[in-house]
Amino acid sequence: MPDVLIKGASTVLTMDDTRRELAGADVLISNGTIAEIGFGLEAGTADIINAAGCVVTPGLVNTHHHLYQTLTRAVPGGQDALLFGWLQTLYPIWARFGPEEMFISAQVGLAELALSGCTMTSDHLYLYPNGSRLDDTIAAASEVGLRFHPTRGAMSIGENDGGLPPDTLVEKEAAILEDCIRVIDAHHDASEGAMVRVGVAPCSPFSVSRDLMRNAAILARDKGVMLHTHLAENDEDIAYSLEKFGCRPGQYAEDLGWTGPDVWHAHCVKLDGQDIDLFARTKTGVAHCPCSNCRLGSGIAPVRAMRDAGVPVGLGVDGSASNDAGSLIGEARQTMLLQRVAQGADAMSAREALEIATRGGAEVLGRDDCGQIAVGKRADIAIWDTTGVESAGSWDPAALLLAGPTKVRDLLVEGRRVVEDGVVVSFDLGRAIKRQNQLVQKLQG
Which domains does the chain have, with CATH numbers? Predict the structure, then answer.
């Protein structure tokens, strides 16, 4: 793979340990890593990317997604429902998915993320109808070229046993654990610079048993992989936990081994002060999903309080059926705005929100090799053209979240281009979109 030299950026927002911002700087990439940062760099046969008029940032990191939901945006009947009603509308549709639906929806969802500046994403796949497997989404990510953290989700408690999902979508717990072992052994790469790392992710307290949560934690730690689930998403979630378990979600998580630096929870809208202290003390991560939380009327997560306490926080777009978009730069802006709405205009700066979207997300996913532009880190880089209409008149183009742009010009993952001049170049996106629309028509029939 040839070296790449990003030349003459208007600003490089490094997000390194000192949060340097470098005007007119160059970034040299070699063998998938950042080799040098400086001024007037030369590199013989390197592929030159002219970054004049551009802001260069680390690639954004998405810590929570359901890629399969890209096939079910704006579904009637679920557009104006709260979480539980929304799920009950969508479950019967998802039950008709198969391997192709999983693959195509993942391709399109990953491309959408890439165009919004995302270089690394997790995915929470917790239902496997009609022969679907986690492998379907891993194959899609390999073609698109994003760094991928798929998690083997699961549901084991159906309606007849007091859970929310229909019985047709739940699995036997022994089979769930067995398949977790299979996908970890087949795909997980613990090495630095890994393109695929697998996690274990029972869906939620209202769709799996306490035994599965406990056993999943034991299995994950035996295998050296991370743990992920939904937690404290809305008032319904809290009420369910109090009724079924006699405790709040934070206590539920702690009792079952679901706290620690190898754990991250999605949403956490309703964490109270005691929960936040627990997460800060144990370095348990949170995937904040502001647009989905707004869309489902769940509330505003206490991100300011979490950050001040020392809780690791990253961003997630959540599923495209509850967002209904997949723009990570949009989530960063929404994060900033919601904290300001809740606590005042000085509650969160544009730069802090961008830090959460980059370095913060990498920390949550346990990737200290990513999330910043520093020598020796992986070359996951977003280049934003600030010469267009969205940035026109901006006195501080580096404050991307205040004015834009909202679409990346170039995106590199491991030093390889995924987006070039605003177009996905790693695979045939147009063909995937065409097939996606055909699958949607089939589901509607």
Answer: 4-58+371-422 (2.30.40.10), 60-364 (3.20.20.140)
